[in-house]
Write a structure and sequence with these properties.
Elements: H1 17-49, E1 53-64, E2 67-76, E3 82-89, E4 95-103, E5 109-117, E6 126-132
Antiparallel strand pairs: 1-2, 2-5, 3-4, 3-6
Amino acid sequence: MAGAPQTLPEGRYGRSADARADRRLKVIGAVLGAALLGFVAWGAVDATAGSKASGELIRFQVMSDTEVQAHIEVRKKTDVDAVCTLRSLAADKSEVGVRDVRIDARKTRVDTVVSIRTTARGANAELVGCKAADER
């Protein structure tokens, strides 16, 4: 068998350079993946826990060509005043009304109905967001 390439017996001489490189890449990938997961989790916790007030749009009703009513539920700490921003869009998606509402009731959960004055017939109402009145 002159000229035939020699193959080494499996497992006799340790791992090949390719196997060591593969293992190193797996370890680096796992570390980077864990770091990315930690960063995403930190961002999610910071975004939700950092706010002292939050709200939810329960329902809305178009009352006329110049008014939309929105029923919102606001959750906050008892001693915090909240400011919630609502808006109404027309059927063509143009903004026709915006209103900031201050919620200063000394409760942790406040249900309220808010009227949004519109410049044209609104097709909907949406809660842009709520925050503590002292947040910037």
